[in-house]
From TrEMBL:
Annotated InterPro entries: Phytase-like_dom (IPR027372), Quino_amine_DH_bsu (IPR011044), TAT_signal (IPR006311)
Organism, scientific name: Ramlibacter albus
SUPFAM superfamilies linked to this entry: YVTN repeat-like/Quinoprotein amine dehydrogenase
Sequence ranges assigned to domain Phytase-like in this UniProt record: 55-361
Record's protein name: Esterase-like activity of phytase family protein
PANTHER family the UniProt entry points to: BLR7070 PROTEIN (PTHR37957), PHYTASE-LIKE DOMAIN-CONTAINING PROTEIN (PTHR37957:SF1)
């Protein structure tokens, strides 16, 4: 979550020296460029702190589209601080050069006891919603990043369309806070991305940055440690496979030198059975935001599920193909884009990719929807 003039809400993530790939021992993945695969169709923004059915709209960190019902969903990452944790449904009208977003409803996410989630002041099961996908049964799958400060681990949960709790997936111990010093997730860089396989039997969950034992945070010189992308069996809620993904180094030095800058994975999306789109989002103080979409083949990655630490191991990572740099799309501005999903097909049969940015409820940022024709 990046502010254009302020640092991320948790600056602790920027501390510590980043490990180089050579030190980590991982096989460096190749990066190739292809002709741009995205063509901007249109964009739209929502008013800052827009009021809707008794809630404040903002912090939209996840987005998805149900083709059968022609229904869109957007997940707010409000940690029950402004209003209880929630998601919105909406309509999106798409025409050449134009995008129109109309909110339809809002649903409060609920704990297993039926109560709304508490905020940090109340304590307990505090959420940090980040990614969401529709399931074929009409339910939603969503992730929380957890809270390292209070040792609340991230989670993957299923909820009904009204927000009521169904179940929670079983996490490998590596993703839990409070373990051995120097291991486990860093605060606020855990389950940022979520992608369903085409048959919806599997769910890939993407870390924003590396586990502590896997390497450091990205710097201008290095992409830091590899992120773990974990495949879960949706029926059982258990992890079945995992691959490592190498983020880019931070694209440019911040201004002034030494001020805040970062890079990480903000969303993932399946492009067929074996390929995945990965959205990397960087922020550099004094420069702004960088957004890039890569395409990988998940079959190319070694299975790291049983690998305790990626440092010093010969882990094979998938090759990255750059399919779009948002700086070349013609958007009015680049902001903290965290949501990505497939939209309806165009009249010419092409698929659409739709993105949404998280404004952090910050008046200096914007809730921006952007629709693109996918030329892949």
């Amino acid at each position: 979550m990046t502010s254009l003039l302020l640092t991320r809400r948790t600056l602790l993530r920027a501390t510590g020296a980043a490990a180089t790939l050579a030190a980590a021992g991982c096989m460096v993945p190749s990066v190739t460029s292809a002709p741009p695969k995205l063509k901007l169709i249109g964009e739209a923004t929502l008013p800052h702190r827009m009021k809707f059915k008794g809630t404040t709209v903002g912090g939209l960190s996840g987005i998805d589209y149900d083709t059968a019902r022609n229904l869109w969903i957007a997940l707010s990452d409000d940690r029950s601080e402004i209003d209880p944790a929630r998601f919105y449904t909406f309509d999106l009208q798409l025409s050449p050069g134009q995008l129109q977003v109309t909110l339809k409803d809002v649903h409060t996410l609920r704990q297993s006891n039926g109560q709304p989630f508490p905020g940090r002041r109340q304590g307990g099961d505090v959420p940090d919603p980040e990614a969401v996908r529709w399931l074929p049964n009409g339910n939603v799958l969503w992730t929380s990043e957890g809270d390292g400060a209070i040792k609340l681990s991230p989670w993957i949960r299923e909820a009904r369309a009204d927000g009521s709790h169904v179940r929670e997936f079983e996490l490998p111990p590596m993703f839990r806070f409070g373990g051995t010093a120097g291991t486990g997730p860093r605060n606020n860089v855990t389950f940022e991305g979520l992608a369903l396989t085409p048959d919806a039997r599997g769910a890939w969950v993407a870390m924003e940055n590396a586990l502590e034992q896997d390497g450091g945070m990205p710097t201008v010189e290095s992409g830091g440690g590899a992120c773990r992308f974990t495949l879960f069996d949706v029926a059982s809620g258990r992890a079945t496979r995992q691959i490592a993904y190498q983020p880019d180094p931070i694209p440019a030095r911040p201004i002034p030198p030494g001020s805040f800058a970062d890079n990480g994975v903000s969303e993932v999306l399946m492009d067929g059975e074996h390929h995945m789109l990965v959205l990397e989002r960087a922020f550099m103080m004094g420069r702004g935001t960088s957004l890039r979409v890569y395409r990988i083949d998940v079959r190319e990655g070694s299975d790291t599920l049983a690998v305790a630490s990626l440092s010093g191991t010969n882990v094979r990572m998938p090759r990255k193909t750059l399919i779009a740099d948002f700086a070349q799309l013609g958007l009015s501005r680049l902001d903290n884009t965290e949501g990505m999903c497939w939209g309806p097909r165009l009249a010419n049969g092409a698929r659409t990719l739709v993105f949404v940015s998280d404004d952090n409820f910050n008046p200096l940022q914007v809730t921006q929807f952007a629709a693109c024709e996918y030329l892949g």
